[in-house]
Amino acid sequence: MLLEGEFTYYYGDETFELHPDEMILFQKNTQIRYKRVGNHQNADRIDCLMFAIKDDLLREFVSTQLVEIEKDREDYTNGVCRMDDRLIAAVHSLRPFFELPSGINPGLIRLKVMEILYDVMLCSATMFSRILQMREPVKTDIHRIVELNYTSPITLDELAYLSGRSLSSFKRDFQGIYNETPAKWIRERRLDRAYHMLKETSMTVADVCYAVGYENPNHFSRLFKNRYGKAPSEARKSGKED
User: Fold this and answer.
1) Which of 21, 97, 120, 220 could staple 209 via S-S, CB 3.0–4.6 A?
2) How far is CA 132 from CA 58, 110, 135, in A?
3) Total domains, the chain
4) Angle 55-64/106-123 helices, nearest 10 degrees?
5) Global pTM?
6) 145-165 pLDDT per residue, tens
């Protein structure tokens, strides 16, 4: 996070320009070359802070805070993102920790770093998502993950991430457990639930569509008819007749 001066970073074949009030994210355990230039008044004046975020702190943050991860926005160009006023103020509030380090409580430092994470999340949803993607994945039970999320409009990539696996590992492990692909299992499980809801509730076809994780009623109706040989509205009529 740069407050004064300018940096040019060289990472492989890529070059990144960092200006005042901007921040950049790098994967840990990577080698970065850089060139720095002071501000216009003082060629030697550089003011920046670097944070190394440990996985345990990141897991604690995600589990204890009201974390809202948005879809990627166009606010993350070439790895560099501009800091907003709130994040800049939070960074400045850390000066005493560097100028007068003696007597600082480690617990307070941890809280301040979590504050920085929260402000990064609010400043740039895309950069915060990148931070989460860089952490060491913790594998969780696939059965629990898919049972909790199959009625949500969630992608296989997101399910793999929630399970702590790469997409290829998730598909392989899922196949080993259910003996079918995750896409087919989710589709059939959603449609079975939809069939039950149409017969047992007074919800509209559109409401049932959204409730089982589909976002387009026409697409839902086509899938339903392919599986059951009749439209969702016809399944409701047959349910009433039964």
Assistant:
1) 220
2) 8, 18, 6
3) 3
4) 70
5) 0.51
6) 888 888 888 889 888 887 888
